[in-house]
Amino acid sequence: MEEQSLVERLRVRAYIRRQIPTRKSVQENKPDRLADLLEEAAEAIEKKDEMIHSLRQALKFMSRGTS
Question: Per residue in 28-51, pLDDT tens?
């Protein structure tokens, strides 16, 4: 079994919540605030991961120039 990242698990859980027909928000066709927060957290983690990757690349580039 392939292990999912935290971002993937957050998104899957948000999707699952939105598919449960007995949930009030689903029945009333309203936003699921917790599912929205799960997706927001996933996006924030992705942005921070991308920023960390960019910073690491910049540090590698800068360290080559000082050698």
Answer: 999 999 999 999 999 999 999 999
